[in-house]
Amino acid sequence: MNELTIVAGGRHDFMTVRHLVLRGDQTTIGHALAEEARSSAGWVPANIDPLRNRARWTWFERNWPEHYARMSGAATAFGLDPETDNVCLDGMPTLPDGSGCSAVWCPPVLAADGQGRVARNYDLFTEPGAASRPYVITMYPDNGLASTALTMSELDGCTEGINEAGLTVTLLLTGLGSTSRPTAPPAPQAGLNITQVPRFLLDTCENVDQAKQALLGAKQYDEGVPCHYLIADASGQAFVWERGAHDSEHIIEATGGPLCVTNHQLHEYPDVQDLPEDTPETFLTYQRARALAKETAGRLSAGSLRAALDAAAMSAVPEQPWRTLWRTVFDPAVRTMTSRFYLGDADNGSARYSPEVTFEVAK
Fold this sequence. Notes:
By secondary structure, this protein is an alpha+beta fold. It is 23% helix and 29% strand.
């Protein structure tokens, strides 16, 4: 039985956060996602070039059968033949028509309680509607890995999540200040767009080694905004995945200490001591990286890891139209995701947040 609840915010707040729990086979789950996108955002599948779309569905069928089955379910929600080539059945929005981030991997060896954790700030501009209707989506497929994921704008993708094996994936904007950003091709393409990468890994991988192989073997493309990804597992392993100029691919390993990520390419600046000063175009990516490195020195408790993220959060400054919209802490060992959400600015100028909400993923 599917469930939909509001877990944070409401009509008088900047944000309303919904938790959608889905059960059944992947086709049934895809049908339910399409129904939610239609009822909440008025979504209908868009027309697309049939040749390009056939290449996309062939890639999904071969490399990501879970997504292929869910999109087949989306077709049935609109009374369409799943083999139809001229409509795009993914990219389901959470908003009707009309950034930066920070993250830290704390390995078990540096954790006060011996449990590795990932913590992240999701920072974005606060123009009306841009991220005001996020969804937490928990999937319990009959076959495959259960997962809980948080998405800003597309029900079939996500910005971060954790699966029942303890694999966690976090997406962050990258390339700020870089001169070697990959050129964005026309979209959609065959392969994975930036928000499909986390969902793909959550569906298909149980640990860091599997995730590395999956990423090296997957066709990927950017849609104007390149991203990199912090990936960790329940065994205490972690790495960052980046794509650079000329289709280069980079795996930045955690080397025993915290792995801090903001919005510049780590393969270009592997040492935080070598970071340049920020410019108006870099949105404090270097300042936040230095703050995280300072705040995560030494052993970290769950509380001090949260405090480190708060030290790198975007302040509620009226002339800066962006905020830390949510902070998420993952506990891979116990398969939980704990988040708090931005609700608006208080009268005293500080940001208002919801209480933390913990989401479990165990079947």
